[in-house]
Design brief:
Mean pLDDT: 81
Radius of gyration: 36 Å
Distance between the termini: 100 Å
Strand content: 5-15%
Helix content: 55-70%
Number of strands: 8
Order of helices and strands: HEEEHHHHEEEHEHEHHHHHHHHHHH
């Protein structure tokens, strides 16, 4: 013991130049903290402002780590979790790639729920077989879907609902109609039918609409919404005669789209749209010109005009106007002049169009007209909130925006307002729209 004491004294004398840490031991709980008093060689201590607080059981190395901001050391388990997750999601991604599943499926709520359910189950989950997916699980899903629809039906009884008939044509030129039922609780898809044989006849369409009114329940239906074709107009009128308390309402989005179509028939606007379509078509019809355009626009694409969607005309002109400087630079560059495309008749024509001042002036004129109407179309065609209570107010604001864009010069937009008013009076000016506007608390009447 004396030898040990002697060795300790020698050790202390040799390292007397180093500071030491004195630990104030205590028998408190695990959550208590201890103050580490940094002793000086004279027996004093540093001021309390420099003292550190650490959890019980920490030593000098912990103080150093705390000073460096690295008190928490990386856990081996964290690294393993990252590697396991990387391997797992790689296999999920491979499932997408092997089966050609669109990437936007990853945003689906049901996909996330499926992944979470697999994680909760744990290892050794046996995947569903072909027979289970095709028969057993499908039947179970139908039962669950019917339970959800029954909840919707209860809401139909309380608040009423709207039947929506959305007609469209597939690649085989068949006329298909999707039937949906909308209520404050949400929208339910009923079914899609092939109406090619009787869609042109108003009486047949009336029978079809009436069949779905019976299916939903006449006492639950407030209105039937469809396109604005003459056949649907006649079907709606016949349905209102038979069902006195049911309204037929034209689709607001289709009405606004028809306004844009009528505006596109004005000679000056029609000619400008044709030139824009020819310009975009020529660029995308020649690979060399397309690559040249992408070089000048820094890979910014143009918008191709749709045949039946007249709102795309606005998007086409808007993108052309944004790239006006780059397109003019391209068609006046040496690369274009020495290329074989500049010798073509169509190439000379589109180059002349791009360099025309009157063409770009007319583009700006059309954008001032169509911009507010396209904004109104987006409001009517949105799925976030019902637009019926906002159509009246939005239309007034659209007309005000057009008038303001031309600084009140009536001669520049009187023909446009005439087209808007004609469509408004015969289609959009409807009792339910007026009621929705009047009862909307967000609008001051």
């Amino acid at each position: 013991m004396e030898e040990k004491k002697l060795r300790k004294e020698v050790y202390t004398n040799e390292f007397s130049g180093f500071d030491e840490f004195d630990y104030q031991d205590d028998v408190g709980g695990e959550d208590e903290v201890q103050e580490i008093i940094h002793k000086k060689r004279g027996g004093g201590s540093f001021p309390s402002s420099t003292s550190k607080k650490l959890a019980k059981g920490k030593g000098p190395m912990d103080v150093f780590l705390q000073r460096q901001g690295t008190l928490r050391q990386a856990n081996i388990k964290d690294s393993c979790d990252k590697e396991a997750r990387a391997m797992t999601i790689q296999k999920v991604a491979r499932f997408f790639y092997d089966n050609g599943i669109p990437f936007n499926v990853a945003r689906s709520k049901s996909f996330k729920e499926a992944i979470e359910a697999v994680g909760r189950y744990g290892p050794n989950l046996k995947p569903p077989s072909y027979h289970e997916l095709r028969v057993l699980l499908l039947r179970k899903e139908v039962e669950l879907t019917n339970e959800i629809i029954n909840k919707h039906r209860q809401e139909w009884l309380k608040y009423g609902c709207s039947i929506m008939a959305d007609g469209w044509s597939d690649r085989k030129q068949r006329t298909l109609i999707n039937f949906l039922v909308n209520s404050p609780y949400g929208t339910v898809f009923m079914e899609s039918i092939d109406a090619s044989s009787f869609v042109k006849t108003g009486e047949k369409l009336c029978e079809l609409l009436d069949r779905y009114v019976e299916r939903v329940g006449e006492q639950n239906v407030v209105q039937v919404i469809s396109d604005n074709g003459s056949n649907f107009v006649l079907a709606g009128q016949l349905l209102q005669r038979k069902r006195r308390h049911i309204y037929w309402t034209p689709c607001a989005a289709h009405c606004i789209d028809l306004m844009l179509e009528d505006i596109g028939k004005i000679p000056n606007i029609k000619k400008t749209l044709q030139r824009a379509i020819a310009l975009v078509g020529f660029i995308y019809g020649h690979l060399g010109v397309l690559n040249m355009m992408r070089d000048f626009t820094k890979n910014k694409e143009l918008v191709k005009c749709g045949i039946t969607r007249f709102a795309t005309s606005f998007l086409t002109l808007q993108r052309l106007h944004c790239q006006k400087t780059n397109l003019r630079a391209m068609f006046t560059s040496d690369k274009w002049m020495i290329g074989r495309w500049s010798k073509l008749q169509k190439g000379k024509s589109v180059a002349h169009t791009v360099l025309m001042t009157t063409f770009w002036n007319q583009v700006v004129y059309i954008l001032k007209i169509m911009g507010p109407l396209v904004k109104l179309l987006r409001l009517a065609d949105n799925e976030k909130k019902p637009a019926m209570g906002y159509i009246y107010e939005a239309m007034d604001r659209a007309k005000e925006a057009i008038a303001k864009a031309f600084e009140g010069n009536i001669a520049k937009y009187k023909d446009i307002f005439k087209i808007i008013d004609e469509r408004w009076q015969c289609q959009l000016h409807h009792p339910l729209h007026a009621a929705g506007h009047y009862l909307n608390p967000a609008i001051e009447n």
